[in-house]
């Protein structure tokens, strides 16, 4: 059984080369985590007192403004960061998908990169050999798959990476929003595969600024604000609080049908 238990976790980044004198006591803008300047070295308090308990079947969206701590939390859940204080206990194999390009080698072919990327995400060589044709079809890259990756455009690389990512069978899938960078037509094609991927995953945590993707993939959410968990609950409830309006308001009929949702009732927030 997969599970994630985080208790009173903090993640600090000491900044040794910051120009201390020019730093304000506290970040005044809306963007960025909290900067503490009491110590000799300024410290960015990227996560503060975060506690959460996730289990098999949970599909959690992470929302919050730029610098609120979403990516830091995803890295903590992936075991990439250790908490400075508190604890983070993860049971299960994590497939971290932060940057679609990570684990790709520009000098080898698209085909070889499919294998490498799959191994990086925890698949075996045998499993990847079975899936490589399906991935190749999905990317529509044809003969380009025999060319070195450095000859690809950004969009072509994303197609390749997304093709691999959507074929894995993760126990714990940690997704950062990079997947939103694909062009709209291709993302539409990838949506069904993403939905399937999430269905196969034991547990999903997905940070994104895109409401429609969150609504499609997640059921609950956490709103991060200045490194703290500001609200946790059903996705609709959290998005309504974060955005100040029901996410289903003004949604196209097509999207509503896709999500199998009822239209928002005027004046009624949350579920
Ligand atoms: N490696 C690092 N070194 C120093 N500071 C960092 C580091 N990573 C993140 N931070 C800081 O921690 C805070 C939280 O950043 P994080 O990347 O987790 O935010 P985010 O919510 O994912 O933002 P975005 O939506 O822009 O991706 C920010 O103030 C950021 O400047």
From TrEMBL:
<dbReference type="InterPro" id="IPR050683">
    <property type="entry name" value="Bact_Polysacc_Export_ATP-bd"/>
</dbReference>
<dbReference type="InterPro" id="IPR015860">
    <property type="entry name" value="ABC_transpr_TagH-like"/>
</dbReference>
<feature type="domain" description="ABC transporter">
    <location>
        <begin position="18"/>
        <end position="251"/>
    </location>
</feature>
<dbReference type="GO" id="GO:0016887">
    <property type="term" value="F:ATP hydrolysis activity"/>
</dbReference>
<dbReference type="InterPro" id="IPR003593">
    <property type="entry name" value="AAA+_ATPase"/>
</dbReference>
<keyword id="KW-0813">Transport</keyword>
<keyword id="KW-0067">ATP-binding</keyword>
<protein>
    <submittedName>
        <fullName>ABC transporter ATP-binding protein</fullName>
    </submittedName>
</protein>
<dbReference type="GO" id="GO:0016020">
    <property type="term" value="C:membrane"/>
</dbReference>
<dbReference type="InterPro" id="IPR027417">
    <property type="entry name" value="P-loop_NTPase"/>
</dbReference>
<comment type="similarity">
    <text>Belongs to the ABC transporter superfamily.</text>
</comment>
<keyword id="KW-0547">Nucleotide-binding</keyword>
<dbReference type="GO" id="GO:0140359">
    <property type="term" value="F:ABC-type transporter activity"/>
</dbReference>
<dbReference type="Pfam" id="PF00005">
    <property type="entry name" value="ABC_tran"/>
</dbReference>
<dbReference type="InterPro" id="IPR003439">
    <property type="entry name" value="ABC_transporter-like_ATP-bd"/>
</dbReference>
<dbReference type="GO" id="GO:0005524">
    <property type="term" value="F:ATP binding"/>
</dbReference>
């Amino acid at each position: 059984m997969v599970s994630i238990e985080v208790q009173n976790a903090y993640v600090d980044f000491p900044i040794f080369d910051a120009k201390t004198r020019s730093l304000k006591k506290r970040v005044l803008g809306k963007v960025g985590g909290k900067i503490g300047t009491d110590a000799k070295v300024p410290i960015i308090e990227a996560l503060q007192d975060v506690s959460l308990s996730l289990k098999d079947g949970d599909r959690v969206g992470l929302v919050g403004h730029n610098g609120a701590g979403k990516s830091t939390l995803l890295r903590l859940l992936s075991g990439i960061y250790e908490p400075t204080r508190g604890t983070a206990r993860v049971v299960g194999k994590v497939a971290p998908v932060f940057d679609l390009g990570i684990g790709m080698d520009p000098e080898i072919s698209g085909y070889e990169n499919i294998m490498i990327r799959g191994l990086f995400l925890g698949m075996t060589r045998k499993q990847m050999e079975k899936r490589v044709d399906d991935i190749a079809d999905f990317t529509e890259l044809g003969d380009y798959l025999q060319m070195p990756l450095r000859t690809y455009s950004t969009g072509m690389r994303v197609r390749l990476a997304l093709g691999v990512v959507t074929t894995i069978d993760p126990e714990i899938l940690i997704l950062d929003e990079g997947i939103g960078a694909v062009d709209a037509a291709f993302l539409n094609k990838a949506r069904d595969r993403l939905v399937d991927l999430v269905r196969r995953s034991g547990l999903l945590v997905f940070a994104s600024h895109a409401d429609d993707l969150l609504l499609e993939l997640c059921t609950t959410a956490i709103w991060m604000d200045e490194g703290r968990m500001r609200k946790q609950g059903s996705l609709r409830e959290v998005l309504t609080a974060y955005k100040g309006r029901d996410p289903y308001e003004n949604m196209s009929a097509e999207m509503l049908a896709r999500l199998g949702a009822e239209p928002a009732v005027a004046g009624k927030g949350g579920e």
